[in-house]
Amino acid sequence: MTLVNAVLQGIFLGAFYAVLACGLSIMFGVMRIINLAHGDVAVLGAYIVFVIVEHTGVSAFVAFAAALPVMVVLGYILQLTVLERSLKAGILTPLLATFGLSIVIQNLLQLTFSPDVHSLGGSAGVVTTSSWQVTSGLSVSALGIVVLAVAVLVFGALQVFLSRTRAGWVMRATAEDADAAELVGIDSRSVYARATAIAVAIAALGGLFLGIRSVFDPVSGPTQLIFAFEAVVIGGMGSLWGTLFGGIALGVAQTLGAQVHPQFAVMAGHLLFLAVLIVRFGGGRAVLPGVRRALLLRTAR
Amino acid sequence: MSEAAVLAAVDVRKRFGALAVLDGVDLTLKHGEAVGIVGPNGAGKTTLLSVLSGSLAPDAGRIEFRGRDVTEKGAADRCKLGIARTHQVPRPFVGMTVFENVLVGATAGGRRRGADAYNVCLQVLDQCGLTHLANRRAEGLGLLQRKRLELARALAVEPSVLLLDEIGGGLTDAESAALVETVAGLRAGGIAVLWIEHIVHVLMQVVGRLVCMDAGRIIAEGAPEMVVSQAAVIDAYLGTGA
Amino acid sequence: MKVQRWTRTSSLFTGGTAVLAVLLACVPLVFDPDVVQKLTTLLILVLLAAMWNALAGYGGMLSVGQQAFIGIGAYGTVFFARQGVSPYMAMILATLLAGAISVPISLFALRLRAAQFAIGMWVIAEVISIIVRLDQNLGAGTGISLIELNQYEPNFRQAYTFWLALAFAVIFLAALFFLLRSPLGASLQAIRDDEDAARSLGVRVAARKRLLFVLAGFGCGAAGVLVVANTLFIEPSSVFSVQWSAYMIFMVLVGGLGTFEGPILGAILLFAIQTTFTQGGPWYLVGLGATAALFALALPRGLWGTIEERLGLRLMPVGYRVVEAQREKKVA
Amino acid sequence: MTLVTVESLDCRYGLLQAVRGVSFEIGQGETVALIGANGAGKTTLMRAVAGAHRPHGGRVVFDGIDITRIPAHRRVALGIALVPEGRRLFPGLTVEENLRVATSRRRGRWNVKSVLEVFPLLQPRRHVAAANLSGGEQQAVAIGRALMTNPRLLLLDEVSLGLAPVVVDAVYRSLTDVIREGATVLLVEQDLTRALKVAGRVICMLEGRVVLEGDAASLDRDRVVRAYFGLKRPA
User: Fold this and answer.
1) Could you tell me the domains of chain A?
2) Which of A119, B73, B78, B226 fits as disulfide partner to B83, beta carbons 3.0 to 4.6 Å?
3) What ipTM was assigned to the predicted interfaces of this complex?
4) Is residue B165 in a domain?
């Protein structure tokens, strides 16, 4: 029975990773860049919720609702300052710029909140404590259900947004061909800013769940980034539902790994990620750049 | 007959998504022969050149070098065999000087070392009129100088096949005459030349055979005067206008 | 016309560097141990900056996981020392181990691009860190110290470690220098400027990148060896920390990505910042991160790249000059 | 009444000078064909008028306003729409989504219904993803997408590229309906005969410069062919 329980807990853990990875997947899907500060943005979200809870005593969920607009504004600012310039400057620049940003966020948090650990578990109400004992070896936590439900809800809402609304089509159009989008009246800069704002908001949701599920400190960002990136790669770069699947696969791999040895949980996730990476990206001669180059030359005429 | 051909494309096909860019192309290039390729925009000329040089892998068909199948060999290995190319839009190594750019061709593709490599480079720089710019960083070169650098780098490989991609565009009459003379000299030296160019009258002065491509296929091939006058060629350029 | 490899400035500079190396060798005899330890740290930073630049600057490979090799070097030393090998011999073996391990890793990692390569390497570092944490006789998570070094009297130990650091720095920088001076050097700079164009001129890009990757594996391993020799106590969270990648990226970006002298300048700058802000702490790291991001966006050529461009100055004789050949004197 | 004026326009790709000192005017309701060999700068000129390429020098004046510095997405609101070379549809979006994404605040007769009327072949393919359309269908959607912005100036870049003649005929029949409704059109067309038939005026470019301009009626094919190839003496 413990195996089934491990898989179940893996699904709940995976739903958390999927929420964490969702923002990273959106920014890669729309702007083809990986934000190396994504984990730190999630942790920043957790800290903002923590501050609101400390000062107003409201529940973490209400505090999150209050923190959301702050995060959306931060998303716009992030896009207009760092990401905008780095988009036009080649493949390595976004990685280098966001890596620098990640160091800035971690150390600013360390300055304002000191290095010790915090948690939002206490202020999330009964959700964090209650669980049901389904059978002897199988327990289902309320928090797990909530995170899974919210994850499916978030991905569902994004699916509706992208396939049903005009703003969604505009975002997909810009993702597929920004130059052609400009020619039909779409301002790609504002689309990128909107995508970043959504990504940052969902990252903050990830930060909220991180705070409720376990603990966080100023330097927990990088670990979250690795899990988020692993979920995106396992699920297939650029595919939204793939990220949900990738997150769950990562969660299950980790809980199964934990059966072997507590330290082996994270290791199992890493090995799954490396295996998927080599299978998907490792094949064949590096012909792709040549093809892209040839196409680029033709349209430049 | 193929062993006489120094480079051959056999039924080469290539698609970009739904677009069939090369739709079964057969082309042979003999030792010391110069062939011109013309055709409207999007006919697949540059793609064919990239498949011949190895920077693009064909979806189907074969590339043969002196009768041996080199389809699986990448651009670097084909260059070491003696197939050199220039790029339609010049791609200099901006952080290096003109001499150092040419040296890459001589040492990597040409496999020369030390003084041998330097001599090949100096000779090629002189041939392409770049000696006075040898120590200048390639970043500071004008467009025509960059085009000459493309040619010089390829020549430094001492190739047996040279693939030229619109190296003649934008030249003055004197410059294009000099280019024609250089290519004629190469032919005399036994180097086979495949030249994509739009300025038909420049090509006519030096190529022995002209090929016209349209929509991924060769639609006319033969003596230059005959090909240019063929209705199909003019239609390809100017349209049928049914 | 003939080709000149040495210019007056470059021969002066190379001569100066050689003199500097000799002077540096006397440091342990002149200064007291804590200064020597600080200068050892500087040499470690110079080595790491040069190796990361070899990867990203010349090979176009941005790795956020070179700490994997730093960890292998450090823990390799402790492992070999525990087997009874003399500490300094253990350090040599550990460096070779790091280089050896980089070969199989390269077979996997070099097929990845941009973000996949950057984070793929980071995850590999995490995997090796976990393997160490699982190993009890390597001190698991709590860390371990190189007690075998206690057999040496402190200031002797510090001197030997400094000399080893100097030797490693000279060896790896010289290796990169001769690589760049060799005909291979032109190919490496070509890869840096335009990979596809280099391939079309006969440069076997994958093989050259592997060469750089393995060189960086050896070099970062050597740096890890020096870290344990210099600080005696190591733990997985320190030697395998992504902080090392942050330092490397800062040094090379600020110094000058893709130049030989730039990373060395960046290392000196970081060392100066670290020693002035001795109480460490977040503020200087905020500055570090912000500067790295700023240089990536606004000044991609870094300090030395800009100086080199503005003044047309080339100190290291890795380039070629074409000059008028003097009239050969006719032999009678 | 002149709708758009191009004054000594100079466009560059780095050092490559694609357009050198080009000037011309297009009147309201006119149809002008832009012809010339490859690399003559036709596409660059079109993109400069549409705002997708920032010119190095010279001016573009539309309806009396200097729009040289205005980005492409704001020129659409002014009434300029470009059907780019190679069609460049959004492959993942359906035909209808490709059209709807271009709806603009500009009012006019064009909406999904009216576009489908002009391109009946699209009616059954409404919910098909653009990637799965044939060349002709893609071309129709590309033009329809531009029409959805209710443009006053419609720029068409090589609509017949890579299409079978019968398909091109269908596209041109729909185009003549659009022209008859008073749209001002500047089109780049490889097919000289077709260009001379549909356009009132022809501009021929060679290596970045205008080498020939005149009414389609008065120009004989031979003179145009010689300008096209830049042949000083007869071929």
Assistant:
1) 2-300 (1.10.3470)
2) B78
3) 0.84
4) no
